[in-house]
Amino acid sequence: GESVGLHLPTLSVQEGDNSIINCAYSNSASDYFIWYKQESGKGPQFIIDIRSNMDKRQGQRVTVLLNKTVKHLSLQIAATQPGDSAVYFCAENSGSSNTGKLIFGQGTTLQVKP
Amino acid sequence: DTAVSQTPKYLVTQMGNDKSIKCEQNLGHDTMYWYKQDSKKFLKIMFSYNNKELIINETVPNRFSPKSPDKAHLNLHINSLELGDSAVYFCASSQQYSGNTIYFGEGSWLTVV
Questions:
Q1: Is the CB of residue B64 less than 8 Å from the CB of residue B46?
Q2: In this model, does residue B37 exceed pLDDT 80?
Q3: B40 touching A (Cβ < 8 Å)
Q4: pLDDT tens across A7-58, in order?
Q5: Which residue from B4, B31, B107 is facing A100, i.e. has the nearest CB?
Q6: SS3 for B39?
Q7: Average pLDDT over residues B81-86
């Protein structure tokens, strides 16, 4: 069946440290993956995406790694800041159906300690 | 200059009522969506429309009826509201319906009492 899961519901890090948020997915047909950040009271905000023909993509302070062999996705945030505190969701498209449907994981709450 | 805007942001209503949530996007996107987020933060797609045509209907009760008057608008009408409909409803849009970034609105908090 379709499912996307995150390994930890809550991650607490010290300001300035690097954060790694993990995600496992089950649909091997998925070919597009996205990380979203959701702050309290707001909608999910796009952070970074990656297609299945890549295994790494970097943005500003963020890196997404994709391991298709074990169906694992991770988001790395460098030099974590208090403003990074939020719930982070990974999502995969259902690549076989070609409909734009995104399947979301349960979310990991990132807490940044000053 | 909000990209995806939805109204109202908060809605408290009684069981059995009918209510609508409106959504508009000014990104020029072809595809629009409605997602539901429950109390455990789980996000699940309800509907998607591409150029006013229904693409996805995720076995949502037919009390929920989306309406797309044009490709920039996708409204959600809910009949006979039930307690279990309480959730946050997010409108979203994307350029095309496959493999493109989906941009979300700020959400509409619906509470049914």
A1: yes
A2: yes
A3: yes
A4: 568 999 999 999 999 999 888 888 889 999 999 999 999 999 999 999 999 9
A5: B31
A6: coil
A7: 96
Please tell me which residue of chain B has the smallest CA distance to A51. Answer: B99
| DSSP string of A39-68, one letter each residue | -TTS--EEEEEEETT-SEEE-SSEEEEEET
Interface of B with A in 60-89 (CB under 8 A): none
Q: How many CB atoms neighbour CB B110 within 10 A?
A: 21
Q: Would you tell me how many other CB atoms lie within 10 Å of the CB of residue B99? A: 16
- Average confidence score pLDDT of chain A: 89
Work out the pLDDT band at B101, boundaries 50, 70, 90.
Answer: confident
Residues 6+ apart with CB under 8 A from B53: none
Q: Is B56 on the interface with A (CB under 8 A)?
A: yes
**In A1-114, where do the E strands start and end?**
4-6, 10-14, 19-25, 32-38, 45-51, 56-58, 62-67, 72-77, 86-93, 102-104, 108-113
Is residue B55 a contact partner of residue B102, using CB atoms and an 8 Å limit? no
Which residue carries 């974590």 as its tokens?
Answer: A80
Compute the nearest-CA separation of B100 from chain A (Å): 7
φ, ψ dihedrals at A42, nearest 5°: -125, 170
